[in-house]
Design a protein that fits this description.
Number of domains: 1
Shape: globular
Low-confidence stretches: 1-11, 179-185, 189-213
Structural class: alpha/beta
CATH topology: Rossmann fold
Strand order of the largest sheet: 5-2-1-6-7-9-8
CATH superfamily: Vaccinia Virus protein VP39
CATH class: Alpha Beta
Strand content: 15-25%
Length: 213
């Protein structure tokens, strides 16, 4: 995107919530919630095996592993990436939930890291995962982060259930998450501000239009 086009797209503030892999928005009670920005890499409309039409219609077409938002942009992020590796490319499960490639470790790591980058200090991230093909333990080893709390998958009768994990962006524990933290503070006062600044609504600069692509 050129600087002129980017400048022209700047409008109102970003909403406080980001759904970084929205898919068909199955988890949402209000699939058009005005508090959220819905993004997905693959907009599509497909007919499922039962005849229903499954539609992915994001507000913005975007890759969660390379987000075009400034650091510290959102108060709350939902990270619900593809979790399947063994389904067929054209299967209804692949259509609905997506399919990870052989390099899934990098995809999940980079997607999580980008979400944490654009999360505001002390903001929360909800990570939704299904253990059908890959365990939660494997995923946590890849992202190298510890959740605050969450549920444990139901393992009864060999079941591989859904897991919800909640993370917080604590700058004192994750000083390299933001690009801003990569530079040296210019003064002791600025260092204190960087470490302890409470999240505030962003000003109307360096923001992106949330209209549909």
């Amino acid at each position: 995107m050129s600087a002129d086009i980017l400048a022209a797209s700047v409008s109102t503030e970003l909403p406080p919530v980001l759904d970084a892999c929205c898919g068909g928005r199955q988890i949402w009670f209000d699939k058009r919630n005005p508090l959220a920005l819905y993004i997905d890499k693959y907009p599509r409309s497909e007919t499922l095996c039962d005849g229903r039409i499954y539609t992915v219609d994001p507000d913005q077409v975007a890759d969660c592993t390379h987000l075009q938002f400034p650091d510290d942009s959102f108060y709350h992020i939902i990270f619900d990436p593809p979790h399947l590796t063994t389904v067929g490319e054209k299967s209804w499960m692949a259509i609905k939930y997506g399919k990870l490639t052989d390099g899934w470790q990098k995809q999940i790591h980079d997607g999580f890291a980008e979400c944490m980058r654009v999360l505001k200090p002390y903001g929360t991230l909800v990570f939704k995962w299904s253990e059908k093909d890959i365990t939660t333990k494997q995923v946590l080893e890849v992202i190298d982060a510890k959740p605050l709390y969450g549920n444990r998958a139901n393992r009864g009768a060999g079941a591989r259930g859904t897991v919800w994990l909640v993370f917080i962006k604590d700058p004192s524990l994750c000083p390299t998450i933001t690009r801003q933290a990569l530079r040296e503070p210019e003064s002791e006062t600025e260092q204190i501000e960087l470490n302890f600044a409470w999240p505030a609504r962003a000003e109307s600069t360096n923001q992106f239009d949330i209209k549909a692509v």
